[in-house]
Amino acid sequence: MSDSCIFCKIISNEIQGAVIHRDEQVTAFRDIQPVAPTHILIVPNRHIESVNALEGSDEQLMGHLITTAAKLAKKEGIEQGGYRLIMNTGADGGQTVFHVHLHLIGGQMMKHPMG
Ligand code: 5GP
Ligand code: ZN
Fold this sequence. Notes:
There is one protein chain. With 115 residues, the chain is of the alpha+beta class. The chain has a domain at 6-84: HIT-like (HIT family, subunit A), CATH 3.30.428. It has helices spanning 6-11, 59-76, 90-93, and strands spanning 19-22, 26-30, 38-44, 83-86, 102-106. It has a 5-stranded antiparallel β-sheet. The radius of gyration is 14 Å and the shape is globular. The termini are far apart. The model has no long low-confidence stretch (mean pLDDT 96). Bound molecules: guanosine-5'-monophosphate and zinc ion. Zinc ion (ZN) is lined by residues 2, 5, 7-8, 47, 99.
């Protein structure tokens, strides 16, 4: 837990977030500024600054992040239409919240090209 981290505060219920899934390892909540009809953030419950800070022992956790995204996509009814999973990292990657998060975005045709 980082005292200054907005996602840690959502995970610990210190501030209100539209939480839609919680388990021992990850929490998922709706993005406050959705860019598509479905825009969910899936985050590890433990504060990890970015993908750059991951260790070998986090591999199971990161796999769980992705399988949770797939389950939520199904729940949202967007698994057939398709969706995009994004993990922005660092300044050039467009990361603005420094707690690892996977964006699950869907419910509309995604724009190309990326970047
Ligand atoms: P990044 O740009 O770091 O990949 O994504 C951060 C995301 O967090 C943005 O899409 C932003 O809208 C979302 N976000 C920032 N602050 C909050 C908040 O307080 N609550 C929720 N639910 N989402 C937030
Ligand atoms: Zn955090």
